[in-house]
Amino acid sequence: MKTAIVTDSTAYLPKEVRERLGIRLIPLSVIFGEETYREEIDMTTDEFFAKVKQHPTLPTTSQPAVGEFVDLFTALREEGYDAVISIHLSSGISGTYQGAVTAGTMVDGLRVLAYDSEISCMAQGFYAMEAAEMAQAGRTPEEIIARLDEIKQTLRAYFMVDDLAHLQRGGRLTGAQAFIGGLLQIKPLLRFENKVIVPFEKIRTRKKAVKRIEELFAEDAEKGIPLKAAVIHANQPDEAGRWRDELSARYPHVEFFISYFGPVIATHVGEGALGLTWYQP
Question: Does the keyword Hydrolase apply (predicted)?
Fold first, then answer.
């Protein structure tokens, strides 16, 4: 059985990784006024941050239309694929996964298995990369899905934002009332829980937030088992690089990546966001 792997643009996988592993991309979009840009296609992350600085109002975001999924799945069937595993950002913050489910029922002669990563960014990218490696090795869709469920058991991700207002305004932060109120300069740690973004701990400074993420990471990293991890940043490449180098020196048994919050997710987390995700390969 020939299985294709699809993911959406919010996995923020580098183009060379997608090409090497044969991962197909379906983009989400950011909308500035009347102009729509498909991230990773019409607009790079650097272009996004430059445009945000020039634009008076923040952009909005939109998921792919069901028709775009139908077109992609139909093309994959024509290429000779028997099955598609379509891996998407959390259904708790976007309708993208549901769009894949719906489109899957509209394409005959192709088995479509939509998968809810229940997260986003490089954490979602890890699912897509593992799935693609297994598909290239000829594993069945059932085996791939079983492995993705296994990853879900060990995958962790924590991030902080410079300004909670973006997440609040976009309606992407759940249970945050305790953090708002007053003019506290807090840098709350956030995570995905039950498919939505929730506050994890209240922390006063960026430095302390980074230290707390390191402590959470150490709980797994100090066991000495192999891990894959990614530092994820919103337009903070130098800080992300330094942090990766420090962690890499401390934990040589962990394979580290640097990734980023691209346009769609950066619209909600804002510039300056920083996170760490990891799992047991």
Answer: no
* 76 found inside a domain: yes
Domain boundary residue, one of 107, 126, 151 = 151
Domain count of the chain? 2
Q: 254: helix, coil or strand?
A: strand
The verdict on 147 and 166 lying in the same domain is no
Alpha-carbon span 272 to 262, nearest angstrom:
12
10 Å CB burial of residue 74 (0-12, 13-18, 19+) is middle
- Of the ranges 40-44, 76-80, 165-169, which one carries the lowest mean pLDDT score? 165-169
The answer, yes or no, to whether residue 99 has pLDDT greater than 80, is: yes
Residue 41 pLDDT: 96
**Which domain, by its residues, includes 68?**
3-28+63-151
Please indicate, yes or no, whether the overall pTM of this predicted structure exceeds 0.90. yes
Residue found under tokens 């093309």: 75
Residues in a beta bridge with 193: 196
Q: What mean pLDDT value characterizes the chain?
A: 93
The edge-to-edge listing of strands for the beta sheet with 111-116 is 23-26, 3-8, 83-88, 111-116
| Residues 78 and 97 grouped into a single domain | yes
